[in-house]
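Lecture 7, part 2: worked example. A protein chain together with 5-amino-5-deoxy-1-O-phosphono-D-mannitol.
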Amino acid sequence: EKAGYEHFMLKEIHEQPTSIQDTYAGKIFELEGKVILDELKMDEDQLRSLQRVTIIACGTSWNAGCVGKYLFERLAGIHTDIETASEFRYGEPVLCGQVFTLAITQSGETADTLAAIRSSRSYGCKAAAITNVVGSTITRETDSVLFTRAGPEIGVAATKTFTAQLIVLYLMAIHMGTVRGRLSPETAREILVGIKQLPGQVQKILNNKDAIKACAEHYANVQDYFFIGRHLNYPVSLEGALKLKEISYIHAEGYAAGELKHGPLALLSSETPVVAIATKGHTYDKVLSNIKEVKARSAEVIAVANQSDTEIDKYVDTVLRIPDCHELLAPVLSSVVLQLLAYYTAYARGCSIDKPRNLAKSVTVE
Ligand code: M6R
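Predicted complex, written out as structure tokens:
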């Protein structure tokens, strides 16, 4: 049932060209620059008057939600908060009927996410869920359900469900942005065409995974790793660090690159590789400066960068490439690189990849 792969995680990483395509199938009408999202039970007037979105999730789904926050704000002009479910449920949120809450949960069974959504609904909020499991509890607790169509995920480390969550978030952001008049059909078209190129681009990364494997093996015995990125690449760095610590047991931290000098720089040395997510976009130059700061502390830098970026080679020790793409879509491709980095690191260390110690696939207790 692993279809010839040694682990479910590797199989699931390789299924992403299909899971991404299945998730957007039938929803993208790129010629009109339009997304059809019938599952989102909100009419155009409701979408236009929306003031605030609160996204609630845990773990990897939280990282997807953090990408979602940036997308909703940039493409749809809606103030969006991202909340950790276990904090939200015991917090004192200021909510009212105008707030739209969005749960992201692959399993649809995470106890904290369910409790947080129930609590938000007690304030009269409309709620939606992004989940991968038909018939899961969250589907009965929300007004709208948007399914990721990733198929069953067995590995404890979330991979294909994460990239599928990102696809749903792009579709929601584009849909809300066009309805609200914030996003022109031309820009929507450009991103939608880009989404349709993702399956082929992910396949390219998978076909060239040897460089990622070699890099993983080279650093497999370090004790600490840092991951840095800005804007959309900040949650990508969090996700890269989470994946690595979860399955390889190496201590890893994801950081907003601009935060380095507020503490973590003190920890850097030649013993701490830093993965810099440095894809092209409006923060690229700023990340380059952060890379220089890191190099000045003798840390080795592994950059995740676009295929056509030849400048980056001058500043870093290793470059892991992703195909050129729309700047907003790079998180999908960079995440696949980081999944493979985590996988091959754990493999080199002889870890139990599909069932890491102390972890369960779905966390149904607090
Ligand atoms: O099923 P959920 O998406 O609600 O699960 C949330 C987290 O438990 C989950 O993403 C966890 O962090 C993964 N094992 C990460 O790979």
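The chain has a mean pLDDT of 96. Residues 185-207 form the longest helix (23 residues). Keep this in mind for problem set question 3.
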